[in-house]
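>> received
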Amino acid sequence: MKTLSCNCGFNVTDENKYKVEATMWHHAIQDHSEMLKSMSVEMLEQWLMNKDEQLKVGA
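>> returned
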C-alpha cells in the first residue's frame, strides 16, 4: 500500500501510487489552491521530491 499525507490531516492510501498521487493533487487543488498559486517552481519541485520519497518511487 502507498500512502501520502497532507499537513492538514488529509490522508490517501491505495495500492496504485498514481491513484494516490492523483488523489493528493485533487485534494491540494480543491482545498489548498491559494497555497499552490503562491508556490514557486522550486517549492513545487521540492514538494514532489518529498512525496516521491514517501511513495518510495524507484524502490
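>> The CA atoms of residues 26 and 32 lie 10 Å apart.
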